[in-house]
Write a structure and sequence with these properties.
0% of the residues lie in helices and 42% in strands. The chain is mainly beta. It has a single domain, classed as Roll (SH3 type barrels), CATH 2.30.30.40. The strands form two sheets. A five-stranded antiparallel beta sheet has the order 6-5-4-1-7, with no helix packed on it. Strand 5 and strand 6 form a beta hairpin.
Length: 77
């Protein structure tokens, strides 16, 4: 992925305040399935996928967890 570009994912993603939070108690936003987001930064690699810092359509900056990175799609704007 390229920093500053729009992407989408086929299932909804919870947005967390930092890259290490995995509980709903730290959820700060939600990205719906196929809703565009802007990629800002790649986080630490995890065994089951990737962690990415994003800007959501609601203007929230946070971290999402991607289980199947091959399913991230670039959005043409």
């Amino acid at each position: 992925m390229i920093v500053g570009k729009f992407y989408s994912y086929y299932i909804s993603r919870s947005v967390y305040s930092d890259e290490t939070q995995h509980t709903l108690g730290h959820q700060i936003d939600m990205i719906s399935n196929h809703q565009p987001f802007i990629f800002l930064e790649k986080g630490k690699d995890v065994k089951w996928g990737e962690v990415c810092k994003v800007l959501t359509a609601n203007g929230v900056v946070g971290w999402i967890h991607i289980g199947y990175p091959d399913n991230i799609k670039a959005v043409n704007t």
